[in-house]
Amino acid sequence: MRARRALSISLVLAFILALGAACQQAEGPGQAGPSPTPAAPAFQPPQDEIGVVEIKPGEPIVLAGALVIAGPDAALGTDSMRGIEIAIDDLGGELLGHKIELIKEDTGCNPEGGQAAATKLAANPKLVAIVGTSCSSEARVMAPVINDAGMVMVSPSNTAPDLTDPTKHVEAYLRTAHNDKVQGKVAAEFAFNFLKVKKAATIHDGSLYAEQLANVFAEEFKKLGGEVVAQEAVGPDDTDMRPVLTRIATQQPEIIYYPIFTKAGGFVTRQSKEIRGLENVKLMGADGLFSPDFVEAAGDAAVGMYLSSPDVTAFGSGYQDFVAKYEKKYGEKPISIFHAHAYDATMMIAEAIEKVAVEGPDGTLYIPRKALRQALYETANFQGLTGNLTCDENGDCADPKIAVYEIVSADTSGWPDQVVKKVYP
Amino acid sequence: MASAARRLAVLTGGRRIDLTMVIAWTIGALVLVLVLVGSYQTLVAGRYTAGQWFDFIVFGLAQGGIYALIALGYTMVYGVLRMINFAHGEVFMSGAFSAFFLADALARRGFLESRPIISLLALLAFAALVSMTIAVILERIAYRPLRGAPRLVPLITAVGASFFLQYTFRGLFGSGVRVYPTVPLLEGTILGIQIKLIVVFLGALATLGILWAFLTFTRTGLAIRAVAEDMEAAALMGVDVNRAISSTFAVGGAMAGVAGVLYALVFAQVQFFMGFLPGIKAFTSAVLGGIGNLPGAALGGLVLGLVESVGPSLFLDGLGIPAAHQLKDAIAFTILVLILIFRPTGILGERLGSRV
Amino acid sequence: MRRALVFGLIGGFAAWHLSLVGLIEAFAGRRLIGQGVTFSYVLLLALMLTVGYLVGRRISNWTGLLGAALAGLLVGLALWVLALLVATVDLRTVFVAASPALPDILTFNRGTGAVGLAVLLLVGAAVGFLGGGLTWLPATGRRAVLTALAIAVLVGLLRDVLSPIFPAPVMGFLFTPTGGLSLPGTATVLALALAVPIARQVLANRASSHRGSLSVRALQRRRVAARVIGVVFLASFPLWAGLFLSNVSDFVGLYILMGLGLNLVLGFAGLLDLGYVAFFAIGAYSMAVLTSPELGHFTLGFWEALPIAVAMTVVSGILIGLPVLRMRGDYLAITTLGFGEIVRLLVLSDWLKPHLGGAQGVTRIARPELGPFVIDRPQEYYYLILIGCGLAWFLSVRLRDSRIGRAWMAIREDEDVAQAMGINRVTAKLLAFATGAAMGGLSGALFASLVNSVIPQSFSLLVSINVVALLVLGGIGSLPGVVVGALALVGLPELLREFQEYRLLVYGVVLVAMMIFRPAGLWPEETRVRELEEAAEEGKTRAPAEVAAVTQDGA
User: In which family does this protein belong, per the annotation (chain A) (predicted)?
Assistant: First the structure.
């Protein structure tokens, strides 16, 4: 009995071994071995101090989107991820004759999520570049890990100033989102010089982005000689903003600046009209609210409101096409704000890869990593959806031209031309 | 020392005082003093007019009305099964979200303007139906097989079901915000109070009344109460326990659906994550009022809404704390702890069984 | 046959659900096996197989097989109807996932015409039939086949995780360059997955025939050997597992620490704490405030700050424990939940921003130094966390078997009786809160140093819920259960990151399913098992009453 069992096991084992051997043989000749092909001795693959990605014929070029695509902040990252996907579609799904494979990693909008995603991506030697992260808190953790792995990342939506601060900036990190410092300053100048208001109030939602922007605005506004009469905060999931608006009303501000996101922004805008003492107050938001979604969420209350945003006169027709593709592909309008930035980041990376990649005689593509970084830093006058992108030595690539728009209609079918009107500068 | 203890015993109506009580009461007293000092200083500073205080109260009651409506469903389930139905917030969300599509269709065809009452009733009915169905299915799949299990187990399935529902809705309808059309009938104000807010408040009261009548006068209501009192005894007396529990979920779900539509009318936005926070708040309300107690849940909801609206300005302004509104939930939970310290079974106390 | 219809309809509904939430389309490009078998198809086929199996299990004769085929066929039909609907009507204003690409995927690229219908019906019926046929296999064989299939799918899914472990030639053999398992790779994995359990069965049989002659010492030796292997495995893990797996195991370790801490409070003393994240946050923020140069209060080193951070959480544990001493059950649950939220709101607030960093959080938190060596990579933190878990485990075991441990269990079973028996519940409860808090605080302090920054968003209610869930899933009160629970609820989701936006959907389903099929948990404590069995007995005795109820109601 036992003998028979032993026999059957050894038979199974033998079968597996034979199978394995057969497959090895079958695969053997088709695949290029690890040693360089002898047919082209003249060709020297490029050398690079932090590594070269080798892509054999038939293998894809691997890019990653490290964005928040699950949990309460999912809309922010999902929107950017779609921007990447549309960019890949526009490239025809391939680059230099290789398919583009997109790895999607969730970063959770917190440092531990950023760390998990970063370590996973860093362990993938085939990965060329990353579009990400969504939240600045993730980038602070992710950038050093990615830097050590020799890769490069371009963030579509980090706006915190410290990420590109010369003392803290990491080489692997670039971004197409603009620095909060720029936007907060323009908003304050607009309010003080153009609207000629002297008393302002700010609201943030406890997110890194909004808190930073509200503070920059308040500082700049004070510097110009204005008075900040109230600095309040709400929760991102709060719905009833009437009490906090009533509190603000007691200080009689002339403008309320709330650089928050669609959901809470819609509530604040709508409910501000219901508060005694705020009937004539001017409202102003930032690019977090620059979307048809917000205008819909706020309804008629949004008319007359000001929004700061990258100067989209440069967005032009390319952006219209983009939105059309977005709606066709995903069945809804853009759900957040950094889709175009993600699109540009992807295109920038693609262009840089095209610039530095070298094809060997056997069709193998070599992408030197350091050269890729340099090519990205050398990006200049790149015609993107979000404007003319030029990267500086600290990784800031966004077009720094910020404009202020006024919402002139609540009917979003004519977005953006019939809905927002540029008023400044 | 002994006489002091005796005096304390008189104070507490003859109950024995142990160390835990003394400690808890000391902490409670400290918090209370802080609250009073803050309120006094705020009132002395005179930053707010009487009209503004009135507004705070109205806003608080409106928000509280919605909490109350969701809390009623919470407390019913608790009264019958002694379980925290963590997924109740998602039942609320599903009603509001599904009814959006009906509301949108009605608005497009102009019905919302031409026949507002019928449209509104249709919306309420539809949301109630969806929420009811989901609540009943939820009970059948996730809770019924676990009726004999330790109490923590259904809590975890409830959490699981909550995630499932959230992300199902996200997958089906997208993660963006959907905006309810405005109902012209509900715009405008009466006596300086917005009509929507009045409707929400009255809606909460009416629902409470209907629920009370249902539990008191119908056979199903009787069965539910019997099961809440003692499941086994009720079964022995010929009550179909499974049916009674299903009806509990059905009624609780329907109320969540109604709450969802009222919420959407006031706040105009629906999104897949909208149920989570109100769910937690409703749970808090139910406990605040005395979990398992229907009027208690309603009262708890109103108190919570009031505290959130009035609290930051009243308690914290005087203490000189910036951006006080940010701490409204912290205040709400502090008040909860305070109330539970002095009344460990909530404001109205537990009245399981007799009133569910 | 009615059963077949019912299951077929449920299966069809599930197929609609999978398709309309976007899962099917999202994974249509994810090749698992060869070029053709994508993860979407695996999902749909698994659905048909399950439906067929369920029908076959209920009816164990030839009609059962027919029924299984019918149920599978119904699933196929449902898919075709959906494909047709999506192709002809624009559902996207309501269902965002009903994209134009969906019908092609659902019909295996055969179109929504008669051909597509025929293919779907055929596939459905065949797979359903197979599923029904599974019930005809003997139990061990069936289990082996199903496990092997599941393992093959899992290996296909885990390619990215496996690639740093195995040398490139092995990976090249197992996988095709575009993602999925290669055909020979599939065969190998299947064969191994089948061979291992069979070999183990054989060995076990042989051992059992020898059992009589196996001496006590030999058994002991075997146990020692197992322990040595375990220790070597744990100690060498980061050396071969690579950066990503080390990082995942770091987080699993942090959750194990929290789980062990909460286990003292919830598992031993029976106090439902839904705000355990408060201690995690206090530990993390203490570490941040004490070491980060950003705030400028203190600039201690990691090792000086660590004991202070733990002491802070012990104090906070007592402070939170005091007002809730008299509360029970759900009142305790909501109050502690409130405390967790209060802590998060305070660290987020503008009010305390100068001291705690507010919305911007705190960065540049100290790394532990050992002489000239600085611990700053996940692989190195692993050892630190491992030591922390070891300490917490040791403490848990000692506490469980001590006087205080028995006092906790007495309180868990019946608080009033425990007090009547002379147990000082004030001390006992506070001690539970304090020690539990210390472990949470340790976890938090390590966490802050590991990710080098803290931000309020990391300390949401979800962390508390996750810890409670991993305790219950592992088996409440059971120490090995904590480890199993953490591996399942923290480790697995990290490994299966690919599910991305569907991760929480799957997480929800898994929680519900696990609780229904294993209410005692994956590795239950012995007394709990007994209790559950008793409860089940009670349920059985109650059943007749319910039957009576039904009949009366009918009359």
Answer: Belongs to the leucine-binding protein family.
Among A202, A242, A256, most B C-beta atoms within 10 A, so best to mutate, is: A242
A63: helix, strand or coil: strand
Question: How far is the alpha carbon of B49 from chain A, nearest alpha carbon, in Å?
Answer: 9
**Residue A311 distance to chain B (closest CA, Å):** 25
Burial (CB count within 10 angstroms: exposed 0-12, middle 13-18, buried 19+), residue A177: buried
Q: How far apart are CA B30 and CA B338, in angstroms?
A: 10
Judged by a CB distance cut-off of 8 A, whether residue A106 touches chain C is yes
Whether residue A218 is predicted with pLDDT greater than 50 in this model: the reply is yes
Q: Residue C530: its pLDDT value, please?
A: 64
Assembly ipTM: 0.87
Nearest by CB: C247 against A22, A105, A116: A116
> How does residue A367 score in pLDDT terms, banded at 50, 70 and 90?
very high
Q: A411 CB near a chain B CB, below 8 Å?
A: no
CATH of the domain at B103: 1.10.3470
Distance from CA of C465 to the nearest CA of B (A): 8
- The pLDDT score that the predictor gives to residue C222 is 82
* Inside any domain, residue B7: no
Confidence of residue A1 (pLDDT cuts 50, 70, 90): very low
Smallest CA-to-CA distance from A91 within A325, A333, A392, A265 is with A325
> What is the distance between the alpha carbons of residues A110 and C24, in angstroms, rounded to a whole number?
28
What is residue B320's three-state secondary structure? coil
Q: DSSP assignment of A188-241, as one string?
A: HHIIIIIS---EEEEEE-S-HHHHHHHHHHHHHHHHTT-EEEEEEE--TT----
| Across B59-73, C144-158, C273-287, least confident range | C144-158
Minimum Cα–Cα distance from B330: chain A residue: A235
**Whether A211 and C358 lie within 8 Å, measured CB to CB:** yes
Closest CA to A199 of A258, A273, A275, A252: A252
Inspect the interface and report whether the beta carbons of B327 and C345 lie closer than 8 Å. yes
Picking from C85, C99, B9, C274, the residue whose alpha carbon sits closest to that of residue A85 is: C99
Q: Considering only residues 252 to 311 of chain A, which have any Cβ-Cβ distance to chain B shorter than 8 Å?
A: 262-263, 266-267, 270, 274-276, 293, 296-297, 299
Enclosing H/E stretch for B85: none
What is the set of domains in chain A, with CATH numbers? 52-177+338-394 (3.40.50.2300), 181-311+403-424 (3.40.50.2300)
| B105 Cβ under 8 Å from any chain C Cβ | no
- Are B60 and A243 an interchain contact pair (Cβ–Cβ within 8 Å)? yes
The residue type found at C391 is: L
Strand partners, A174: A154
CB contact under 8 A, A262 and B177: yes
Q: Go through the domains of chain C in sequence order and give each one's CATH number.
A: 1-136 (no CATH), 141-200 (no CATH), 242-524 (1.10.3470)
CB contact under 8 A, A296 and B324: no
Residues of chain B neighbouring C517 (CB-CB closer than 8 A)? none
Note whether C173 contacts A117, CB cutoff 8 Å.
no
Burial label for C44, CB within 10 Å (0-12, 13-18, 19+), is buried
**Residue B259 belongs to some domain of the structure:** yes
Q: How many domains does chain B have?
A: 1
* Shortest alpha-carbon distance between residue A19 and chain C (Å): 7
Peptide bond into C313 cis (omega under 30): no
Are residues B47 and A250 in contact, defined by beta-carbon separation less than 8 angstroms? yes
Q: Do C515 and B156 touch (CB under 8 A)?
A: yes
Percent of chain A beyond pLDDT 70?
88
In a domain, B324, yes or no: no
- Print the domain residue range for B123: 49-309
pLDDT for position B14: 45
Chain B from 210 to 249: CB within 8 A of any C CB: 232, 235-236, 238-243
